[in-house]
Model the fold of this input.
Amino acid sequence: MTAQPPAAWRATAGRVVSRTLVRSLYSAEVHGREHVPATGPVVLAANHTGYLDGAVVHGLSPRPAHFLVLASTFERGIGPVLRHSGQIPLVQGTGSRQALMAALGVLERGGVVGIFPEGGRGRGDLARVEKGVAWLAVQGGAPVVPVACLGTRATGALADSWPRLRSRLVADFGAPVVLAEEDGTPGRVRLDRAAEEIRTALADHVTAASARHGIALPTDVPPDLWD
Done:
């Protein structure tokens, strides 16, 4: 694994593939595109319930993005597509440092990084988040745009299942979270505070978007969860 950021053109090409897939197979909607800053570094933080979340958020984002994706996913059939589209393999544990540094490189050149801060598929209610999203926002000086991804998995569906064809999928981008400077605050404390601020903003946005669009979150954790 390399800590070098992937080439920017790959995310642009990959977004075309994701958008074509999502819009041709599903009734896909995007809301709140105006909340994503047109230039400069941005972190897209989305809830995670279903297999197609990455394709939905990536394809419907107003800007190309490089998503942090579990390295095990690259070993599956979709691996070549992920590599070609400039997604960043994430090895959980000690290997996560390399992925975060590659993502930081994307932010430092003014690009967009996507992340599912819950760390895996579940109910998508943001009961907890990993601190990587806060680290990227702080180190990269980037606003965090909360994204509600809805409709990709129904209650009882398997972790790697696809939604019914032509079913309604929604990506709703919320108002950016800009973390305040905290001079003199210990790094670990600042990271904890930032992670909780992001978690709260994303949880509130997902709850509101779910109600607004009439698409409920699944009430279970997928029974064959592998990531």
In short: The chain has one domain: 8-213.
